[in-house]
């Protein structure tokens, strides 16, 4: 556990370093900013905002026979999971360009730039009557499918998204999308083409999809939102793949269907989010219907889902973004954005996830995993996570394999 202790010692020095940075900014000519708010600049009718995210992971595994199944390393490992830069451009307040936004997001953790998002968005073109907000976007971004998939990992109370979400959510594609929002309804729908490589330029693959999400939204307490997603996919050959990764990318893949040759597929999901004071609970269920998979006539059905629960042990609270229909950055009572959360900024979490990739002519195994742990917020943008994950995997042929791992993460957002 020596690496985890070293990370903890490094983290303890962050508040003073952030305070020193704040003092330096107060005596400089640069515009002030707070940790997590990003760097801001104005250029005529445009405003620019640059944010940085760093996720550093540690793992101590005891995977038994899962080592070979998942392709994971057997010893302790450390990794920079994410090193990302997000650039947002939008029109200045009061200018004619105000509704226009452009976002670019890249990951450079391997010292090689890998594009993630690159799209333009125009706000409030369709408003009036029951519609209080809207936007149109085009480019490369996440398809609107599911609650956990639409929430930034930086705001999730877990190391990664659940195995079920990683397996069944479509991820990023190139396309266009429209969003409409009323007082209690959020609608998102778009048409997409799967791509390979960087967003621009890249290779446009043959897979096409129409993906939509409809969510009912409450007042933020109790049943906060409930909804459904659907994705109609035309893979045009062997572009359909379902891969389950649990707990941490360092654990590898515990279920992998490989490329499925199919004519059509329909993916669906149900979601619910409940918030009550320091408590947050959310759940999703997924199902995929595949026609004539791997040249075998008939329908193959795959399924999965998860249930998660989190509670702040002090005065913290999970925030919710109504416009995205997803979780937002947490509110840490008494903690400055530049640090100082104290022991009250502790959060206990638990999540159970199930993934079934055995159905019809698809035989890729089943996975059950449990993740539990504690999150310590030095500030609302600096977090130390210590989790335990247990995995039980059932391959299509052979005995069930069990394993577990201790996971650690240091997460910083600027």
Structure, explained:
The chain has 414 residues and is mostly beta strands. It has one domain (2-413): Porin, CATH 2.40.160.10. Helices cover 8% and strands 56% of the residues. The chain is built from four helices and 23 strands. The protein is globular and about 65 Å long. The relative contact order is 0.16.
Helicity level: under 10%
Shape: globular
Number of helices: 4
Averaging pLDDT over every residue, what do you get?
A: 85
Distance between the termini: 28 Å
Number of domains: 1
What's this model, at a glance?
The protein has 414 residues and is mainly beta.
Keywords summarizing the entry:
single chain; 414 residues; two-stranded antiparallel ribbon; 8% helix
Secondary structure layout plus pairing:
Blueprint: H1 2-12, H2 14-26, E1 39-43, E2 46-62, H3 66-70, E3 77-91, E4 100-107, E5 114-123, E6 133-142, H4 163-168, E7 172-181, E8 185-196, E9 203-217, E10 222-234, E11 237-240, E12 243-245, E13 253-256, E14 260-262, E15 264-276, E16 279-291, E17 299-312, E18 320-321, E19 326-327, E20 346-359, E21 362-379, E22 382-394, E23 401-413
Antiparallel strand pairs: 1-2, 2-3, 2-23, 3-4, 4-5, 5-6, 6-7, 7-8, 8-9, 9-10, 10-15, 11-14, 12-13, 15-16, 16-17, 17-20, 18-19, 20-21, 21-22, 22-23
